[in-house]
């Protein structure tokens, strides 16, 4: 057990560096932490060639079949995240590699952030801030959210918490998901509707489904055309849930009233990306759970998963 090598291959921006959670692993083996992102595939693989366990703190450090096939000693990857799209899970299962994530652990933290993005968008906070900084004082109508219809796509842990917050300010909530929950219908008063019905009825649409082959470009030009004129679109799931070109067209044409995004199909988003030139938009850099409380919850959960695996009781296995 003392000979185990536990490697954190690219902890930048800092996530687990300095966390007291790492001390819990000292009795199991040596922990090596890299405080910068690997610059290329060769460097990424070389950092973990001797690793028994990887703690993946950043989604930008991806593990596809090509990389994993070069790591015969690797037994487990523990993620500091809910999402697992940075790992080829199918190949991991094929080679017997254990991958543990943290479903729902920071759902209320993420939901609060997405809720805040909705408010910033509805009140045109970013747009008005930019005008004031440029010396212009303009009057634009805001959106009153109370009484409006929020359409939630995906009612897992984050989506259901988003529904609770919206209900608290008097919004009406409809939802679509792959697996409707009777409990949420009774507890929160969520009404499940068909996908097209949600697009047609919602004043605000918030995306909370996982990224998969089924959900890639779930929102494209066809779906946007079915939305209300002036609808607000929020994405706190994954960037590729939306076809970015279609989103840009809809924002520039005025079909959509605005968009709030914590995720992008290119991360970091290039500084010359045309999306950044759109009008009523609010952006944050994939950081919805990045509060001190959220960060430490994820650090604790990642270490919990490693300890559970080493003690013979793996949990949250994907």
Notable features of this structure?
alpha/beta; Rossmann fold; 7-stranded parallel beta sheet; 5-stranded parallel beta sheet; 318 residues
The H-level CATH homologous superfamily of the largest domain, spelled out, is: NAD(P)-binding Rossmann-like Domain
Specify the biggest β-sheet. Answer: 7 strands, parallel
Q: pLDDT average, as an integer?
A: 95
Share of helix, binned: 25-40%
Helix and strand content put the structural class at alpha/beta
Distance between the termini: 24 Å
Give the count of helical stretches: 11
Spatially, the strands of the biggest sheet line up as: 8-7-6-9-10-11-12
Enumerate the spans where pLDDT stays under 50 for 5 or more consecutive residues: none
* C-alpha-based Rg, rounded: 21 Å
Q: What portion of the residues fall into strands of 2 or more residues? A: 15-25%
Extended strand count:
12
Order of helices and strands: EEHEHEHEHHEHEHEHEHEHEEH
- Using the alpha-carbon principal axes, give the shape: globular
């Amino acid at each position: 057990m003392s000979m185990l090598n536990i490697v954190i291959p690219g902890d930048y921006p800092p996530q687990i560096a300095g966390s007291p959670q790492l001390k819990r692993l000292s009795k199991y083996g040596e922990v090596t932490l890299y405080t910068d992102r690997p610059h290329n595939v060769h460097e990424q693989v070389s950092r973990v060639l001797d690793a028994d366990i990887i703690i993946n703190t950043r989604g930008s450090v991806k593990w596809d079949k090509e990389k994993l096939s070069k790591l015969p000693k690797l037994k487990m990857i523990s993620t500091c995240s809910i999402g697992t799209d940075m790992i080829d899970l199918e190949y991991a299962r094929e080679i017997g590699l254990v991958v543990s994530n943290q479903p729902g652990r920071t759902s209320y933290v993420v939901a609060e952030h997405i809720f805040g993005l909705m408010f910033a968008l509805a009140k045109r906070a970013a747009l008005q801030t930019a005008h004031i900084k440029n010396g212009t004082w303009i009057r634009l109508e805001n959106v009153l959210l109370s009484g409006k219809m929020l359409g939630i796509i995906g009612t897992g842990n984050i989506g259901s918490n988003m529904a609770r917050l919206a209900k608290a300010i008097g919004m009406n909530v409809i939802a679509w998901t792959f697996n409707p929950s009777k409990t949420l219908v009774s507890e929160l008063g969520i009404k499940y509707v068909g996908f097209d019905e949600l697009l047609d009825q919602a004043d605000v649409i918030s995306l909370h489904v996982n990224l998969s082959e089924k959900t890639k470009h779930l929102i494209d030009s066809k779906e946007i055309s079915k939305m209300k004129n002036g609808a607000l679109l929020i994405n706190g799931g994954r960037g590729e849930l939306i076809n970015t070109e279609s989103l840009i067209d809809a924002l520039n044409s005025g079909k959509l009233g605005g968009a709030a995004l914590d995720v992008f199909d290119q991360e970091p988003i290039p500084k010359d990306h045309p999306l950044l030139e759109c009008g009523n938009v609010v952006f944050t850099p994939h950081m919805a759970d990045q509060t001190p409380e959220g960060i430490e919850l994820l650090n604790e959960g990642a270490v919990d998963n490693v300890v559970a695996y080493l003690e013979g009781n793996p949990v949250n296995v994907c």
